[in-house]
Amino acid sequence: MPKLMLALDVLDRDEALRIVEEVKDYVDAIKVGYPLVLSSGLEIVKDIKKLCNKEVICDFKVADIPATNEKIAKVTLKYADGIIVHGFVGEDSVKAVQDVAKKLNKKVIMVTEMSHPGAVQFLQPIADKLAEMAKKLKVDAIVAPSTRPERLKEIKNTAKLPVITPGVGAQGGKVEDIINILDDNDYVIVGRAIYQSKNPKEEAKKYKEMLTK
Ligand code: BMP
Fold it and tell me: What GO molecular functions are on record for this protein (predicted)?
């Protein structure tokens, strides 16, 4: 049964912590990115972990030269359990983050093909190569789209690594279309469909149950 990762892209610290409190029994991990960290500071990661004791992944899609990637990883992984990086910048940039993460026993998750329509323009043509690179580098997981289940399947087959997959809910992806592709080490990311709903707790429960079936 794949796990549920909440994408917590709200812009207010108190709202973020209120949602975490509500959904913590149903989510296995929480993904925070620029929206929340730029508005609340990186220490929000510590606050979330204190509140729910769940894995917290920083989605910074790091895409710089190795020396800068290393610095970003050092600061981020002081608090977070993992960090998301882009692969298109090349192996050396990803390895720089892996070197930091290995010392701290943290995760590096690499983007292959993204879930939005524009990803077919430049990312899709290189996504299979990115998946091969992810396999070679033995990153901890890859990001691949729920909005294109056939691509999710192909990329997962190539990389042979755990997948975290966004696109379910607000972007139109459906659990029933991807559930058979995924296994116990994979995560389904759901953001707006939970945190923008009238009852985030009920929605989180609903998604958790869909993944359990
Ligand atoms: P939502 O369920 O609200 O669409 O959120 C999806 C989350 O996953 C957002 O944080 C988004 O930035 C992230 N994401 C994505 O949607 N597609 C990708 O290809 C990669 C992502 O990290």
Answer: orotidine-5'-phosphate decarboxylase activity
Instruction: Please confirm, yes or no, whether 184 is among the known catalytic residues.
Output: no
Task: Give the domain CATH number at 26.
Answer: 3.20.20.70
pLDDT for 135? 98
* Nearest protein CA to atom 8 of ligand 1, as residue: 166
Of the residues 24, 49, 61, 205, only one is catalytic, namely 61
Residue 136 catalytic? no
Note the pLDDT tens digit of each residue in 63-80: 999 999 999 999 999 999
Q: What is the total count of domains within the chain?
A: 1
Whether 95 is catalytic is no
Predicted confidence at residue 97, as pLDDT, reads: 99
Q: Residue 111's pLDDT is what?
A: 98
CA 115 / ligand 1 centre spacing (Å): 7
Q: Which residues of the chain have pLDDT under 70?
A: none
DSSP lists the bridge partners of residue 163 as 142
Q: Which residue segment(s) compose the domain that 152 sits in?
A: 3-212
CB contact set of 112 (below 8 Å; sequence gap of 6+): 87, 123, 127, 130, 131, 134, 142, 143, 144, 155, 159
Residues in the annotated binding site? 9, 31, 59-68, 115, 166-176, 191-192
